[in-house]
Every structure is written in C-alpha cells, then in structure tokens.
Design brief:
Blueprint (H helix, E strand, L loop, with lengths): L1 E4 L7 E4 H15 L6 H8 L3 H8 L2 H23 L6 H16 L9 H10 L3 H27 L9 H20 L4 H16 L6
Antiparallel strand pairs: 1-2
Helix pairs in contact: 1-4, 1-6, 4-5, 4-7, 5-8, 5-9, 6-7, 7-8, 8-9
Length: 207
C-alpha cells in the first residue's frame, strides 16, 4: 500500500508501507522492541518520524505490525508446504527446513521474530502478552489441522490426539527458533527436527 504524507511546506512525500514494514521488521527482529527507536527506522528508511507515526502509530504499534507481517509469511509457507497433498512427515519436514532457513537468514542468526522478541515485552505489557498468546494458539491450530487432515487420510495411527500432536509440533518449532537464535548449526537443527518428527508423527524413520 502506498501512502502520501502531506508536509507543512513543500511537496508531499509518498512511500510504500510494505517497504517500511520490511525495514522495521529487520530492525526489530534483530534487536527487539526496546533496542530500536523510531528515529533509527526513520534514518534507515529516509521517511521522517512524524510521517511514520502518521501511518503506523507509535513504535509499539509499528513493532506489532512488523510481527504480524512476519507471521503472515510463516502462515503462507505453512499453507503451501503443508497442503495435505503429500505424505505427512515429508510435508512437515519441508516446512521445518524452510523455517530453519528463515531463522538463519541475514547476517546473524535471529530465530523467529515473534518467539524470540515478544516474550521479553510480554512480561510487562498486557497487549503484547495477548498478542503472543494468540500467535501460540494460532500455531497450535495450524499444526493440529494438518494432523487432523492426515488422520482423515489414514496417514496417522490411532491413539494420541491430533491436538496433542499439534501442540508438540508447535513446541518443536519454537525450540528450533530459540536454538537458531542461540547460534545452533543448521545441521544440528535438521537432525533434531528429523528425530522429533518421527516421534510426533508416530512413524518409522526413513532409511
């Protein structure tokens, strides 16, 4: 979306909301809400602080918008890679490998923007705590729905509930995110994912 901000004098300034969100997301992803100022984002983007505030609100609002933008990317990947057209564990493996690539992208390991930055702010901010809880619940639901579909397709053995499997898969994703932020090597993350999915999916490991 393009926005035009009128200045007191001179020509109005136009900028793309997506470009601002992308720049803000990179900053918040690396340094969290407390480690970034609107002045820094204004300098990076070349958009004046009053213009940023006019469109996005205060720094906290911009941070939450950037979080939502990040989560939409993950949700899009989940919809594409866990569509149910393939075998369950193969689809889960593809999604987790994509998540690892995302978590290790950039010049430094950053993990998941939501899981690695929201908890710090959630301690003293009720709205951010609710935002984090909603993201956790939504992640559980995405995995639970994929396991539910797998059960309907006859790909899951009877026994453990799909809700439990969904929560375990989500917990695995969160653990991978934190370990990636801590600098865990990609190979070790892939090995962890492979072993955990054998347990969560209730299937034998591929030879």
């Amino acid at each position: 979306m393009s926005h035009t901000i009128k200045k007191g004098r001179g020509r109005p300034r136009a900028f793309e909301e997506g470009a601002i969100l992308a720049s803000a997301r990179d900053a918040f992803w690396s340094r969290g809400l407390a480690g970034v100022s609107l002045d820094q984002i204004a300098t990076t983007t070349g958009v004046a602080r009053p213009s940023l505030a006019a469109v996005f609100g205060d720094k906290r609002a911009l941070y939450l918008s950037a979080i939502d933008d990040f989560m939409r990317e993950l949700e899009k990947a989940a919809a594409t890679l866990m569509s149910g057209r393939g075998e369950l564990r193969a689809e889960l493996t593809a999604f987790f490998r994509g998540a690892v690539d995302l978590y290790l992208s950039g010049t430094e390991p950053r993990g998941c923007m939501a899981i690695c930055t929201l908890p710090v702010e959630a301690v003293h901010d009720d709205e951010i705590r609710t935002h984090l809880a909603n993201i956790l619940a939504a992640t559980d639901t995405v995995f639970t729905n994929r396991f539910r579909l797998a059960r309907a397709q006859g790909q899951l053995p009877a026994g453990q509930s799909v809700t439990t499997r969904g929560a375990l898969a989500a917990a695995l994703l969160h653990s991978v995110a934190i370990r990636a932020r801590a600098g865990a090597p990609k190979a070790s993350l892939h090995a962890m994912i492979k072993s955990a999915l054998v347990v969560i999916c209730g299937q034998q490991a591929a030879s």
